């Protein structure tokens, strides 16, 4: 397809995969309207690849064309099939690759965008509306919610709904990194900054580039790292460990936590100035119990449909699932459906199958504590120290539910990780002392 003049050419761009644009679109030797066309193509937001055709190798024309986004250039003296066809073929491969990238990007948007957040309850509608409203603001966002409610998914939805969606999304779990390494992991370090720093490393904040960084479990951030993070947020500058010069922070910061930060501020465990800096926009992600029956059923069937095995549920099984407490929220429900898909002997799931694969006997939520005490005291003849028995049982139950993760178990019990460690060490010490006493009695 050929076109003469800027306006005519612009009107014919739809459906074009590659444009060869002459610097001169008329017979006037001073004409440079080809560059004007290139400028208008870029101004329209089009990513159409353009190859400039020039009658001379004038450096200024070629430099201006490349500055305006031309992919390549061809001199008119060399404009023949042997030269043009390889250029067209190379762009054909690039166009195919670009199309594949766009397709994969669309899949990512489907998986992580706002519409991927399942649930039609009013509380989840409110979450989606808030995400859409704050997506393109550069202010920090604080996401609050219990363990397993989907805080990271909300953070990803914010990222993918924003103008930063083509840039990196980097998630950092502040509890998964030893405190001694956390500063270096977040902000980076210079070579020789500490023992073992054999080379320079960019931190996770720098790795996020112009995208988004999620600081998950920020409520457990050590106080010394909190003060450094506050400086980064206030000045938008990052100072790597051992560096003399800071660097700009280009990423947007999103934080998430399952603890009450306001209470932590009162307890002196979280800096008030950092809290206020983060608490610009807050999104509360409701627990599964707060979302109601309709959301639970919607999530159940969504997770079931994503499994390779086609499962069905009896009406009684659905009632069992709805009535069951889900302390691990959406994550627990999703993993339970995955377990059913793998372990269930039949595809039609009934109550007996659910109870067999639930991993623990059912208890009503109101009597769970009393039932636990009765279970512990009723199953042992060592009634001389009931408090210790119950405490040990509670700690073991919390560790079982969290896969041995002490930080998560401490949060489940409402104590700090250090406090949990001290209590467990004391219980083990008491056991050792009791064993020694038994040996002496013998």
Tell me what the CATH architecture of the largest domain is: 3-Layer(aba) Sandwich
Shape: globular
Radius of gyration: 30 Å
**Strand share of the residues?**
5-15%
Order of the strands making up the biggest sheet: 5-8-11-4-12
Description of the molecule:
- It is built from 20 helices and 14 strands.
- β1 (19-22), α2 (33-43) and β2 (50-54) form a beta-alpha-beta unit.
- The strands form five sheets. The chain has a five-stranded parallel beta sheet. Strands 1-2-3 form a three-stranded parallel beta sheet, with helices on one face. The chain has a two-stranded antiparallel ribbon with strand order 6-7.
- α13 (293-305) packs across α15 and α17 packs across α18.
- The protein is α/β, with parallel strands linked by helices.
- The relative contact order is 0.07.
- It has helices at 6-11, 33-43, 59-67, 81-112, 122-134, 151-160, 179-187, 204-207, 223-235, 261-266, 272-278, 288-291, 293-305, 315-323, 329-343, 351-357, 368-378, 386-401, 406-413, 417-441; strands spanning 19-22, 50-54, 72-75, 141-144, 169-173, 188-189, 201-202, 212-216, 237-238, 247-248, 252-257, 281-284, 312-313, 348-349.
- The chain folds into four domains: 6-104, Rossmann fold (3-Layer(aba) Sandwich); 116-286, 3-Layer(aba) Sandwich (Rossmann fold); 289-357, Helicase, Ruva Protein, domain 3, CATH 1.10.8; 367-441, no CATH class.
- It is globular and about 95 Å long.
- The chain starts with 5 loop residues before the first helix and ends with a helix.
- The model is unreliable at 361-371 and 373-384 (pLDDT under 50).
